[in-house]
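Q: Predict the assembly, please.
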Amino acid sequence: MADDVITVENLRVRYGEKVAVDGVSFTVAEGEIFGILGPNGAGKTTTVECIGGLRIPDGGTITVHGLDPRRDRRALAELVGIQLQHAELPDKLRVGEAIALFASFYRTPADPEALLAQLGLEDRRETPFAKLSGGQKQRLSIALALIGNPRIAILDELTTGLDPQARRDTWGLIEGVRERGVTIILVTHFMEEAERLCDRVALINRGRVVATDSPSGMAGRVHGELHFHFQPSAPIDAVGLERFEEVSAVHVRGSDVEVVGHGNLLGVVVGELNALGVVAQRPRIDQANLEDAFVELTREDALNTPMVAEAVAR
Amino acid sequence: MSHISGIRGRRPGPRRAAGRGLGSGSPGFGTLARTELRMFLREPLALFWGVVFPLVLLIVIGTATGNKHRAIYGGLRFIDVYTPVLIVFVFGIVGLQAMPATLVSYREKGYLRRLSTTPIGAARLLQAQWLIYTTLCLAAAVVTVLVAAIAFSVHLPTQFLGFVVILLLTAGAMLAIGTLIASIAPQPRASQLIGALLFYPMMFFAGLWVPQASMGETLRTIGHATPLGAAVDGLSSTLAGQWPPGWCFLCLIAWTVIGGRVAVRVFRWE
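A: Predicted assembly structure:
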């Protein structure tokens, strides 16, 4: 395991009476993509704002490459590139000007031209910010987060508002950034994004870390059932499959059959079909993924609060 | 991008101690100021009201009012009395309207916040704004005085040092008040409204509608306490070759210092 470059210990932030972050702790290793997942209002953005030195925590300690974001803000700014939610540029600022301007703030900036080309903005150089599409604005925002050649990039809701194609292109870009050795903190609520990009994810709910694990490890924490979908090549008595111990339910929708179960479900069903001389066409297996884990773990977390537990008990 | 090459890597060492004054000191300040200037020049409305309109007014008034010397203007012609008013008009538009609207929209968009995540920090943007608007106002004042002198034989400010000092203090007072407006106003529209509510009374006491010389004693006394009233009086002295009266400096310094201190204390970055 590489060295930890970010350490967050027992972070607390309150807005007036409301506790936004309530004892969050995690570490991020050099070169990894660390995801922060959680429902809206869970405290994800507040947490990364503290790491970026934008917000002063009420308690806890943060170390970023040995720096304290509160005290060494300027040195931190050289190391950390941030892509903020809801941070726009002046309407009349052109793409080329914006990238040159931000490059001028850093001691060792990346090559503006190369970065624009990488993000597919090279033919938008003369376009004012107000005339860019949502996806182009987002790409420019990513470019500005990377222009200082940061060691750490914090990307908050990176692909929100992008169409599916643009989202996939952006993922490719992030993987390219990681290959340059940049450590990335990715705040997201897209499970697919976290599954594809992140080495580890922390699931935050109501200001607390519910679980920290790899995406597959996280999915493995919930013991969901397997769903085996197929179309039999000849009519069968699908409901008869329920006699097997591994099968808990069978649903038939037209020519589609869905067998729900656990353990060696697949072997049992395919064996039975073989015995009948039937082939399973267009087979598909669904099992618990990060999204199921997300739903399950945040629900468990809600059940653990005294008020909800009491309400459920009643 | 050719204009950044001169800035990149200019100061490799630590620059924390470089100070907070205007001008250089952190890399990127020059680029920041130039970029802000370029964006201002792209605002046709600001450019019209701030630069073109006062010049047109000068030419119209100079042509229409003729060469009569009048006792009520202290033996001067209308255009002589009016030239300083048109100079401070630009300062008022820029300081009370253009700058606060820009700052508020930057805050609303999250641009100030975005800058504060970079090594340059958002305070530098404020300084860049003050720098370019002061420069613009001074340039407009020089053009106005030259046009007035060449086209209508208005006296050049032979008390040149006094002229420049009054202009700088006027810029200081207007930008301090403008920054204060930007601190209070929640959105650009509100800042334009507050700016207008301050601009018109201030321009009244500067003599936009009634020359100061024709005002009654009470109005003149009130006018002495307003920044643009003091500015016009001070500039008129320098056009007549005299050092401006002490209270002009006092008034402008007071507005700059008090307005500036309050603005810095209450300014909101997000």
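The CA atoms of residues 134 and 161 of chain A lie 7 Å apart. The longest strand of chain A covers residues 4-15.
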